[in-house]
User: What shape does this take?
Amino acid sequence: MDQHKDVEVQRTEKKTDTSKVGVAFIKYATYLIIFFAIMWFVINYIL
Assistant: This one.
């Protein structure tokens, strides 16, 4: 009647570094702002 069960516990931790996410957001937001500023300049002054 002895039941021996092997139980394997697996723990996973989600690693989220909010500072890296913030830096990436600021970087790509800056790229978008520069892109739209250049497009605005091209549309208003060159075309």
Observations:
- DSSP finds one helix and no strands in the chain.
- The radius of gyration is 26 Å.
- The helical segments are 18-46.
